[in-house]
Amino acid sequence: MKNIPALKLIILCFLTVLLSCSDDETNEYYTPSVSPVNYNLEAFPYNTLSDYNLFEGDLQNQKPVLGVIPYKPISSLFTDYAKKKRFLWMPENTSANFVSDYEILDFPVGTILVKTFYYNNVLPSNTTKLIETRLLIKKASGWIFADYVWNEDQTEAVLDNEGSTVQVEWLEAGVSKSTNYRIPSESECRTCHKIGNVPFPIGVKPQNLNAAFPYPQEGSVNQLQKLINVGYLNPVDYSNVNTVVDWKDISQPLQLRARSYLDINCAHCHSDDSHCSYRPIRLSFNDTENSDTNLGICVVPDEDVNSSLTHVVSPGRSVRSVLSYRMNSTEESTKMPLIGRNLVDEQAVSLINDWIEGLTQVCE
Questions:
Q1: CB–CB of 278/262 below 8 Å?
Q2: What pLDDT, on a 0 to 100 scale, did the predictor assign at position 26?
Q3: What is the pLDDT of residues 218-268, one digit of tens each?
Q4: pTM across the whole model
Q5: In terms of DSSP bridges, do strands 112-122 and 69-71 run parallel, antiparallel, or are they unpaired?
Q6: Is the Cβ–Cβ distance between 213 and 72 less than 8 Å?
Q7: Residue 172 to residue 307: CA distance in whole angstroms
Q8: Nearest to 160 by CA among 140, 179, 188, 180
Q9: Do 111 and 90 meet the contact criterion of CB atoms below 8 Å apart?
């Protein structure tokens, strides 16, 4: 019993050293363990983006807090050249499940998917301008849309699901471009983000995420592995996932690039139970692997878009292909995709035309 004071002194000294180490900002052992995201599922969506506490410091810097994970699909949907930053967050002690290569991950209730649209080199001041931040939030009843429009000072984004337009002029690869950028209404979001009448995300599929991402702390890590590492994805063997390619990567086979472009830009409408399911093509990556018909090759158009167009895809003749014609149009009644762009993606048109010109099938 006489040694108890000495034992207490030893314990006190140990705790003092431990706490002093914990307070040292350079100490590698001290890390916060709970995400500071302001999670109140019943109150979602909040009125402002800052209410969620998804980012630390100045909101416009988009520096994610603990638990908010950046990600990037291998290929991206074209939106009038807008750049995008994407993040996801899940409530504590929840995880997503792998369903299949080509289906979105089965996310838990409370998941928040974040996508900010912005432009660099905006004129006349040659600065970065954030336009909108779209949130998809999974409630018990399903996914809901919440679009936040940035103010001119770039200090806050306010909830607005009504839709609007923003005039933007910027330099793209040194060339001046401008667009009347469309911020979609909730009904416009539903046009693309739905299966049947049920809202769904588009890009968060294993086939689109099975690639490395340069994370600030760890460096380059496979995105599926990263989700497993942080507990956001239940462990799964992703080594054999049938993966898309970056359609801008000219080192990849032309056929794979074309199929990957059509998957991320067109398949959300040209799939079963989607907005354009009545059209005779199916453009999901998994549907085009062994099907000329699904790709529109030698398929006769189901409407008279232009009398010179003979097939959806006419092998060797892009000038007679509906696909090329629609991609190269900005007319509201003709352009494809029908929502999300006012400009022509010239690089994509070139890709699809090269692919069509290289086809050798003979149509009956």
A1: no
A2: 34
A3: 999 999 999 999 999 999 999 999 999 999 999 999 999 999 999 999 988
A4: 0.88
A5: unpaired
A6: yes
A7: 35
A8: 188
A9: yes
The two tokens of residue 22 are 């914990």
- Would you state the structure tokens that stand for residue 59, as one six-digit string? 């909101």
Q: What residue has token string 């060339």?
A: 175
269-295 pLDDT, tens per residue?
A: 877 777 777 788 999 999 999 999 999
pLDDT range class, residue 339, cuts 50, 70, 90: confident
Q: Residues 227, 229, 231, 235: is their CA dihedral positive or negative?
A: positive
What tokens were used for 334? 């003709």
Torsion of CA 97, 233, 288, 326, to 10 degrees: 110
Q: Closest Cα to residue 326, out of 262, 282, 244?
A: 262
Following CA atoms 61, 65, 71, 76 in sequence, which dihedral angle do they give, to the nearest 10 degrees?
-30
Report the distance separating Cα 228 and Cα 323, nearest Å: 39
Q: Tens digits of per-residue pLDDT, 25-65?
A: 333 333 447 999 999 999 999 999 999 999 999 999 999 99
Structure tokens at 216: 């600030």
| Token pair in block for residue 273 | 């139970």
Q: Which residues of 120-159 are buried (b: 16+ CB within 10 A; e: fewer)?
A: ebbeeeeeebbbbbbbbbbeeeebebbbbbbeeebeebeb
Residue with tokens 């100490």: 27
Ordered by start, the domain boundaries in the chain are: 1-30, 41-229, 254-358
**Cα–Cα distance for residue pair 134/141, rounded to 1 Å:** 19
Q: How far apart are CA 157 and CA 168, in angstroms?
A: 17
The pair of three-digit structure tokens given for residue 68, joined into one six-digit string: 């908010």
* The one-letter amino acid at 186: E
Measured CA to CA in angstroms, residue 351 lies from 1, 52, 173, 345 at distances of 84, 40, 19, 10
Which ranges constitute the DSSP H helices of 96-166? none
The structure tokens listed for 141 are 């009843």
Chain-centroid distance of CA 332 in Å reads 24
